[in-house]
Amino acid sequence: MRNSIDKIFIENSSSEQFATAYFEYLSFVLSSISTAEIAAFIDALLKARDQNSAIYFIGNGGSAATANHFANDIAIGTRSWEKPFRAQSLCDNQAVISAIANDDGFEYIFSQQLSVLLKEDDVVVAISASGNSPNLLKAIDVAREKGAFSIGLTAFDGGQLKKRADLSVHVPTGLSEYGPAEDAHMVLDHLVGAYLTRLVREV
């Protein structure tokens, strides 16, 4: 079954035509994201900052890179030193990740870290196009057990993550459209970071 990107390629043979059609489709996807969900995401990050709670970003593959980028932009990019966003990515420590994956299984790489680090009222942000990665779902389970707030940044049909997270910011793409899904998640990073950076300067 072909998705929108496959169809764009079939209908636009030249690279220039493909680029134009890709941008048009990405614009459509971005315009379809709920701004109310984005606002709720921002409110959750601000609440965590007010409570001095930690914010943990997690993801696999391209979404791991987005998790790292998000943590950087929220914790450091906002320049909120006196009242910081205590954000970090759990995708960075390869020694920890490889130890857990080797000893207990890849599906535990985030849940075990959260079992050690997570406190009540902390925030876990899980980034996934499919929303069905077992290691992210296990992390959401730990967040629920410990009284933390969970947020899923999803795409495709949202998968289980959209259903199980306390809050979902959903990017409505077709199945297997990883490019537009991950593009949109990075746009969310820069949108949220841009807003928070300017907001904390005024507070």
Describe this structure in words.
The chain has 203 residues and is α/β, with parallel strands linked by helices. The chain folds into two domains: 1-31, no CATH class; 34-202, Glucose-6-phosphate isomerase like protein, domain 1 (Rossmann fold). Helices cover 57% and strands 12% of the residues. It has helices at residues 4-11, 15-31, 35-50, 62-75, 94-103, 111-117, 134-146, 159-164, 178-202; strands spanning 54-59, 86-89, 123-127, 149-154, 167-170. Strands 2-1-3-4-5 form a five-stranded parallel β-sheet, sandwiched between helices. α8 links the parallel β4 and β5. α1 runs antiparallel to α2 (15-31), α4 runs parallel beside α9 and α6 (111-117) packs parallel to α7 (134-146). The longest helix has 25 residues, at 178-202. The protein is globular and about 50 Å long. The termini are far apart. The model has no long low-confidence stretch (mean pLDDT 96).
Q: Would you tell me the structural class of the helices and strands?
A: alpha/beta
- Tell me the name of the CATH class of the largest domain: Alpha Beta
Would you count the extended β strands for me? Answer: 5
The helicity comes to 55-70%
